[in-house]
Amino acid sequence: MPAIVENYDVCVVGAGHAGCEAALACARLGLNTIIFTVSVDSIALMPCNPNVGGSSKGHLVREIDALGGEMGKNIDKTFIQSKMLNKSKGPAVHSLRAQADKVAYSMEMRKTLQNTDNLTIKQIEIAEIITDDNNNITGVKSVTGAIYNCKAAVLCTGTYLRARCLTGEFINETGPNGLQAATHLTDSLKEHGIEMYRFKTGTPARVDKRSLDFSKMQEQFGDERIVPFSFTTNPDDVQIDQISCWLTYTNEETHEIIRNNLDRSPMYSGVIEGTGPRYCPSIEDKVVKFADKNRHQIFIEPEGLNTNEMYVGGMSSSLPEDVQLAMYRTVPGMENVKIVRNAYAIEYDCINPNQLYASLEFKNVHGLFSGGQFNGSSGYEEAACQGLIAGINAAMKILKKEPLILDRSEAYIGVLIDDLVTKENFEPYRMMTSRAEYRLLLRQDNADLRLAEQGHRVGLLSDDRYEWVQKKSKMIEDEIERINNVKIGANKKVQEFLERHNSIPLNTGVSLADLMRRPELGYESLAELDPERVELPEEVKNQVEINVKYDGYIKRQIKQVEHFKKLEKKKLPTDFDYSKIGGLRIESVQKLNKLQPLSIGQASRISGVSPADISVILVYLEQLKYSNPELFFQLNGHEE
Amino acid sequence: MKTDTIAAIATALTPSGIGIIRISGQDAMNIIDKVYRSKNNDKLLSDVKSHTIHYGYIYDGEEMVDEVMVLVMRAPNSYTKEDTVEIDCHGGVFVMKRILETVLKYGARPAEPGEFTKRAFLNGRIDLSQAESVIDIINSKNEYALNSSLSQLKGSIKRDIIKNREKLIHEIAFIETALDDPEHISLEGYPEKLYVIVAKMLEEINHLIKSADNGKIIKEGIKTAIVGKPNAGKSSLLNILVGEERAIVTDVEGTTRDTLEENINLSGISLNIIDTAGIRHTEDIVEKIGVDKAKNCIDLADLVIYVIDSSKELDENDFAIMEQIRDKKTIILLNKSDLSSKTTAEDVKKHIDKTIISISAKEEIGINDLENKIKDMFFSGKISFNDEVMITNVRHKNALAEAKESLELVINSIRNGLPEDFFSIDLMNAYESLGTIIGESLEEDLVNEIFSKFCMGK
């Protein structure tokens, strides 16, 4: 039977948020790339919440942008409301979140894909991966039998693999939003020795705006001055008229209905096999687990400009249709609500991400990469950043360049990927600020300064952009130095200024930096005492203020990072049999053999590997210096 | 290779003519310059030649600590191949501790057990075969090391630390949740609440640090119980062990009001004999059978010496004691070997499987065998190191001091009106510092664990 055979550099399977970033990265790096989707109309679909960013997720989007990814630019073009969260707290936890016009977001991304050179879009389900005898990926095969040869492939299948959706007793064998599920690929992956998990997540109902009484809800506005996601977007271009969200609450009546119908929830009756996330519970989970709370917040969010549909944030559920309607109607302002799309839970196949290197390449299938919910994460932003890294590293592999691996001290992306590939993970993984140990350094405001060099090195960030970031960095440095050297005397003008700002008068002269560290004073307000000051760009001033104000904390964190880096720098051999090292516990040997950590640091984070085991490995490494100096120095270089 | 600078007491922690504090690492010379003054205060040891010895004084600021001789050895011609300084001081336990604390104050950190040896190894001083034997020892001793260091913590201190860590992690978790979910959880009024909690915690930590300062020196040895029926010869044995040639150290109050401990130096090994008062007392009052009392001592002891009167038959009191010592490191002494024997080693072996030594306390026969046996057990790691206890304590104190510092930073942050996310950085540091005390650290700073059962300063 004749079948189509085509040749590409890279095949990307899936066109959600991960797939789009992966495909764009590869194509932009000059590789002949094809992206497969079960439906071209669902490219960059947002099947759940209608927003991008939020606490720590906003950081991820900034980092994606700093590396040359697309998500930040795309949301800047299609958002309808924007808000900087945690503004009353420290700069490290400021986090941007924007409500998206879902259809516009998806269309805009589709347009970008379609207008990118070297990128082919194909609507077909991929059924198999093809490898040679040495476990190198050589191509993928579609359900129709067409073969697409490639040098590297990136799997970003999201929630589509053997997906099924559950609304009470009603079960639908589809992917999200009624889209076709991908039923074949799991078997092929298993045949290649890939270990699969089954996870679960859920989404609330979409309701008709005309059936809501907003007079019973509180209006939630966007920020007055909008900050864009992308470092390349001019802030003046995004000051739009914003659309409001609405806040209301559940009550005891709501909870009563839920409690009375728990036996009809597939989660509680045991129909659902997959593991769901603890941090994003369904309303029935909240009612059961937090029984002492007599109300829960509900955010009503618009799905877009050209639709009446509203998203009922905080009320995801897998209860039957009739129970859903009854419980939604107990919420103030929703007494007469009409449900457009029912809430549902979705189950899907994903992998145990411990099978991946930090480059997101499979350890046992060379040239096969993966990203997104397929790797056991949740969320658009988590997916997009993995897609970007997987795409970049597929390209690096083909171009025979060093892979891009970010560590925990460099980026939230580094934390996320390290957690996924190193730690045991039994629920969909969500990024949180508390997961980042060095978050004072990993701020959303300095993502460009942190990552531009890497973005430029891999080739996604233009020379112009990179030069600007370098210039900016220099301006910041110079200004901080200047401020540290500006002396402020305890003269009348200064004392009068301090009094005006409710600040304690000076006893002796201090530096301008010292004054800036006072909580009540800042870079702007001190301009009066700083006549030499040259007007600098807003983003430079912002960095100067943060770095001066929190100087002590930042220095302490840098010290912690230095300590961390010491162990990260001790590299371990790959494809190594740990049973060769005498003295490790059997449990550790198994975990180490399976995970093949790249460094002592990573090995120490593996659940179940004890400090004593690490000591034994360290001794082994030292011995290697004598017994196999060639390997040792190849791994760890020569000592300074 | 860049390393930090470590210090430790290199001699056994018992009174002796001389004590040595060793410092090794790149800052060794800097640190000694800060604490050493020559007689005329006219020389810096960082300027002197390698392998020279210098008379002078150790000063902590303006306070003179001790009169000393200091030996200077420069890298790579030292045991660790690093810059090394040895301070020879007067051998009192207080003096040695005080000098060590001074050195730590000026920039060294306490060496982990065996860390000097570890450095010697890492710097290529020891060869491969030695290194391999080191691994064997690590493997056999890791578990033991952890257990012994944990058991040195008094139950109440450990409970305090666990309780405070639980409080800390609770507050951290609350702040973190609020940061991750700002729209659902408000931090309104929280700093004021946290201030009270942290201030109270600081008070408790300060109290713990003070109790560490009180230095229960006598406890820093192998806790030893001497048990047996009245008139078995416990008192005579004790007298021989603490006889003039072996010198009683001191009497201090022990854990309970009426229990005294005496410290015995047995060829450099420190033994703390529990309830010496009880031993002497019950010998006098025959009707007070020591079995109940013995039980308490046995529970507390790392080593039990069980004295049997071999001129008498075993009776139910002996069997009761045997039941209590079954799981303890024990040496059984068949005393009164000078008299005709009614109980032999074979008779005892039928009831309990322990090392048995025949002695005569009266004639001082067999005492050397006992000493040698204790030394064997000590050096094979079956009973605990005295100097390790010391280190653990200094380390505990250091960790407490770190926790205190972190909590003070939290207080500062709250006072200065910093946002809540800054609190959790230092709260987490305090949590980790306390964790190092009870062996539940998040931070796994590891190489140091490695040679942890090595006697330092070898």
Task: Please characterize this protein's 3D structure.
- Chain A: One of its GO terms (cellular component) is cytosol.
- Chain A: NAD-binding protein involved in the addition of a carboxymethylaminomethyl (cmnm) group at the wobble position (U34) of certain tRNAs, forming tRNA-cmnm(5)s(2)U34.
- Chain A: This is tRNA uridine 5-carboxymethylaminomethyl modification enzyme MnmG.
- Chain A: One of its GO terms (molecular function) is flavin adenine dinucleotide binding.
- The complex is a heterodimer of chains A (640) and B (458).
- Helix content of chain A is 36%, strand content 17%.
- With 640 residues, chain A is an alpha+beta fold.
- Chain A has 4 domains: 305 residues, FAD/NAD(P)-binding domain; 142 residues, Elongation Factor Tu (Ef-tu), domain 3 (Beta Barrel), CATH 2.40.30; 80 residues, tRNA uridine 5-carboxymethylaminomethyl modification enzyme MnmG/GidA (Arc Repressor Mutant, subunit A), CATH 1.10.10.1800; 67 residues, DNA polymerase, domain 1.
- A 6-stranded antiparallel β-sheet of chain A has the order 16-17-18-19-15-20, with no helix packed on it. Chain A has a 5-stranded parallel β-sheet with strand order 7-3-2-11-22, covered by helices on one side.
- In chain A, a hairpin with a 6-residue loop joins strand 18 and strand 19.
- In chain A, helix 3 crosses helix 4.
- The relative contact order of chain A is 0.12.
- In chain B, a hairpin with a 2-residue loop joins strand 10 and strand 11.
- Chain B has 15 helices and 14 strands.
- A 7-stranded mixed β-sheet of chain B has the order 3-4-5-6-2-1-7. In chain B, strands 9-10-11-8-12-13-14 form a 7-stranded mixed β-sheet, with helices on both faces.
- Chain B folds into 3 domains: 122 residues, 2-Layer Sandwich (Gyrase A, domain 2); 128 residues, tRNA modification GTPase MnmE domain 2 (Four Helix Bundle (Hemerythrin (Met), subunit A), Up-down Bundle); 160 residues, P-loop containing nucleotide triphosphate hydrolases (Rossmann fold, 3-Layer(aba) Sandwich), CATH 3.40.50.300.
- In chain B, helix 5 packs antiparallel against helix 14.
- By secondary structure, chain B is α/β, with parallel strands linked by helices.
- Chain B is flat and about 85 Å long.
- At the A-B interface, helix 17 and helix 20 of A face helix 4, helix 5, helix 14 and helix 15 of B.
